[in-house]
Amino acid sequence: MDKLLIEGGAVLRGEVAISGAKNAALPILCAALLSAEPLELSNVPELNDIATMLRLLEEMGVKIQRDGHRVTLDASQISNPVASYERVKTMRASILVLGPLVARCGEARVSLPGGCAIGARPVDQHIKGLQAMGAEVTVEQGYVHAKANRLKGARICTDMVTVTGTENLMLAACLAAGETIIENAAREPEIVDLANCLVAMGARISGAGTDTIRIQGVERLHGAQHRVMPDRIETGTYLCAAAVTGGTVRLTDTSVAYLDAVVDKLLDAGCEITMERDAIRLQAPARLKAVSLRTAPYPAFPTDMQAQFMAMNCVADGVATIRETIFENRFMHVNELLRLGANIQIEGNNAVVRGVERLQGATVMATDLRASASLIVAGLVAQGETLIDRIYHLDRGYEKIEDKLHALGARVRRVR
Ligand code: UD1
Fold first, then answer.
1. Whose CA is nearest to atom 15 of ligand 1?
2. How far does the centroid of ligand 1 lie from the alpha carbon of residue 109, in Å?
3. Is 65 exposed, middle or buried (0-12, 13-18, 19+ CB in 10 A)?
């Protein structure tokens, strides 16, 4: 299993390009299932999660051509509308095939994702929404089995704000008969990107990016071309990595448009930030100030940036309180940060981080994708060597991470 060895202390300086957004690309790949004509995508990141999704779609009969960041999907024939446990257990986002498959094929069998490291993460809202659209849904032997002759438009109000839940229902509603209204919809930029792709395919969607999305179902969707939006979480992660080392970086091919909550906190921490049209520049102070935060659905502070900010706070000046409100078990990086000498106390879903003068390198274990990113942030500033075990989590969501960190002057090496 690959490990990442970081020799801390290098100040990050330079420029790197940000990749396409994993969390936008995954639902957009599933949009291909809705049409018999090819969907041509660009800026698709080369990540393990994307490879998993492509394999899953191929198993269903979708023909895929891939050339670097360009992917063309031809779903003219869907022979097997099934997502097996083997695929779904490695990536929860596989559940995103459920909506489009029922809408296009009238039937789908998708394994239930089950538990995951950061919490229970049920899919009851996905199911409830499809039932409201007239699907007959049963759960048997760990699989969700959904059937419908043609889905019917419905008014759906989700019990909580769910990102993939909103996406699944939006995908399904595109081919339903009549109008679907999704209330309490997630407002994440990735949902807007998915809606833009669907509209390019002929879908009739309004309100994406607000909490009420209206979809007028159409008989069929056609082929289209779409460029996946930049990854705001990757952008935020490199900003934190640079900030913690007191560095200066320019991130290109990205947009600060969706990063307000993160940028505000970096400003509070004492960083200077300059926005350009498709780039962002950060200059960090010698020592960061502690910043408290609370995660919540977009446009509030993203849960996917919580761990990286926790790592920054470990060496900041002052005390920060971090409140996680989305997932019940998203503090697994804390025990690893403690191994590096951090001072963190957890009470329920609050963590109190008291900044220390320095962290010391140690062997630590990555427990999930963003936890891994936080260990990199901490390892970059820790004295001596930090060895991060189980970095397959990182490869799920960060494209060419060592190359990008090298380009910024970090001393990082993959150990096989
Ligand atoms: C997506 C993101 C993930 C991010 C998360 C929150 C993708 C592929 N993943 O995950 O990176 O951390 O949003 O921003 O885009 N819930 C239910 N029932 C449901 C659905 C959700 O109880 O049917 C709960 C979850 O357990 C969680 C909360 O709702 O507590 C939000 O989860 P959700 O927004 O659905 O997260 P994901 O879409 O899985």
1. 23
2. 21
3. exposed
